[in-house]
Amino acid sequence: MNNQMITQTNYNMQMEMILEGILEENISQKPRKPLVFKPYTNRQSMMIPDIESFIPEHHVARLVDEMVESIPDKLLFSHYVGGGRAPYHPKLLLKVILYAYTQKIYSSRSMKRMVEENLPAMWLAGMQSLESRYEQASNKEERKQLRMEKSKRQKHIKTIEKDYLPRLARYEAQREILGERNSYSKTDHDATFMRMKDDHMKNGQLKAGYNVQIATQNQFIIGYKLFQRPGDTRCFQPFMNQLIEALPKVPTQVIADAGYASEENYLFAMGEEQEPLFELLAPYNTYVKEQTKSFKQDISKVQNWPYREEEDVFICPNNRKVLFKRYSQRKNTGGYEQDYKIYECEDCTDCPLKALCTKAKGNRQVHWNPVYEEMKAKARAALDDEQKAALYAKA
């Protein structure tokens, strides 16, 4: 062991002597020149008049600065409630964060160090040093408040992620299944809940099903179609369009029950040409009721009141004028727009018949649909015809 150490020491001494000889030989061969360096000292006071001038023209920091400055202050300030200690300007924070991301810096500690050491970051921060939220808090109460706010935000985020977003996705899926309907069956998504006719137990319940439309001629079925719509009224037009396309010629008469009688279906039967598309023999929903004695003697029914066309007024049972006031539009459940004329009695004060005429506190109003009333008059005239009434009764 000792011999090895002595040998190594002698070897090192020999190598040092050889290197010193080589250096002395080289120095003696070359003439010495005076050494000149650029002035340098970092122990004196320095002042940077314009830090921006040290940022290259096409530096990414300038792009970040220009982009953030283009954001309106109002948009950024809307996330602050005000009060308490003045926070950092949102544009300062946004610039520092975006620039840090371009430099692959993601932690807050590294961003804080970057603002202290990186010249472009210093410029973006306006030479302000950043402190964490907890460093800014001057006492325990403020730190406690910050923790409570953070916990509250996390709770809201968790609620959104675990409850609201899954629920929204479920609602969107259900709405996609619904389409234009207002219900569907969980076991058969194509079926719609409809009020069925009373069964043998007199139970008229909502049940999932389909609306089957069938057209017959001389007791032969000439067309059918399944619908997801519960009411017959809205099925009439699409079914007739399909039937007309399939038949060699358009039928001259179509007989249907009161479920198909509506303003839009009457107008559809009339067609857009001068000649009607076909004659629709369908009683409107109050047709049978209007034939009764009780209806004809009911003074509240405007159908029983005289109408003066030249004055556009109705005459109420107390011989007072019911004057036109304004026009109105309404949409029915199917989205069809109907035009109404609103009439109002000139004065219902002290009228002895008011209790029998209306339950309104003020003057009696009449909502009159001229188009539908004209369609009803034509349907009534057709059904009052003996030949057509017999044809309807046979169907």
UniProtKB/TrEMBL annotation:
Species of the source: Lysinibacillus pakistanensis
Signal peptide: none
Domain of life, per lineage: Bacteria
Keyword Coiled coil: yes
Coiled-coil ranges per UniProt: 127-154
Transposase DDE domain residues: 315-394
UniProt keyword Lyase, yes or no: no
Record-annotated Transposase InsH N-terminal domain positions: 50-130
This protein's name: Transposase
Record keywords, A-Z: Coiled coil
